[in-house]
Structure prediction request, 120 residues.
Amino acid sequence: MVFTAGARPIDAGGGTVSVGDVAGQARQVMVNLAAALEAAGATLRDVLRTTVYVATTDRADLLAAAEVVREALGTHLAPSTLVGVTVLAGPDQLVEVEAVAVRDSWQEPGPPDDAATLDE
Prediction:
């Protein structure tokens, strides 16, 4: 299993990107999350669940971040908890995403491996 700490909206130099833009920060967070997962031998398709933190009191901001996370996960829709918070750790940071993944967990839907034995 892979447990990530909160991915932040930072560039390679450590600076916060898309200051004031929740969706822009969420996109960078998902890029950074994908890189962290890749370093651990996993991908976004291996994500079992996410927790999305957004520093806002505006429901539209929460939904904007959630939509970016959904888009990044594609057809693999992992359960997600969306949390509005007062403040996050980085300067000008509005979005942070934690994830739990299992390497190589995604498979095409189909019958169970032992389906042939069910009729016996």
